[in-house]
């Protein structure tokens, strides 16, 4: 039996990333593309979340006021703005990631989550 495997090309993955960013930009701008309300979706998450926000002044697409509206006011949510980092925090500022992630992971481990 022969299996057909389709490999994703760079073009496929690039257009998918661009599409996801476009959807997020539309949601942030109030131009929903028919999905669920982000407030409702995020409220359904029942585990600890670390949201690392890229700096809107450096290319981040989640403005402070939008996050203030949609992020649940729960102890399970931690939002950290990475000043000076654009959309791809890991690639552009890896030195800023571990000092945020490791203490957060340690806190979750100590909580028993």
Share of helix, binned: 40-55%
Largest pleated sheet: 2 strands, parallel
Side by side, the strands of the main sheet go 1-2
Backbone shape: flat
Average pLDDT, to the nearest integer?
A: 78
Rg, Cα atoms, Å: 17 Å
Our estimate of the beta-strand percent is 5-15%
Count the E strands. 2
User: What's the helix-strand series?
Assistant: HHEHEHH
Classification by helices and strands:
mainly alpha
| CA(first)-CA(last) distance | 45 Å
SS element count, helices: 5
Q: Ranges with pLDDT <50 over ≥5 residues?
A: 1-20
Write structural notes for this entry:
The protein is mainly alpha-helical and 113 residues long. The chain has a domain at 38-111. Helix content is 44%, strand content 11%. The protein is built from five helices and two strands; from the N terminus they run ααβαβαα. It has helices spanning 10-28, 38-43, 64-70, 89-92, 98-111, and strands spanning 49-54, 77-82. A two-stranded parallel sheet has the order 1-2. α3 links the parallel β1 and β2. The longest helix is centred in the N-terminal third of the chain and has 19 residues, at 10-28. It is flat, with a radius of gyration of 17 Å.
């Amino acid at each position: 039996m022969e299996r057909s495997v389709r490999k994703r090309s760079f073009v496929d993955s690039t257009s998918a990333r661009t599409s996801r960013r476009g959807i997020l930009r539309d949601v942030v701008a109030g131009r929903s593309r028919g999905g669920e309300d982000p407030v409702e979706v995020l409220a359904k998450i029942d585990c600890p979340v670390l949201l690392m926000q890229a700096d809107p002044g450096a290319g981040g697409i989640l403005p402070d006021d939008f996050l203030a509206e949609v992020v649940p006011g729960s102890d399970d949510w931690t939002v950290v703005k990475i000043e000076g980092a654009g959309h791809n925090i890991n690639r552009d500022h890896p030195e800023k990631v571990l000092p945020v992630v490791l203490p957060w992971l340690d806190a979750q481990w100590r909580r028993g989550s």
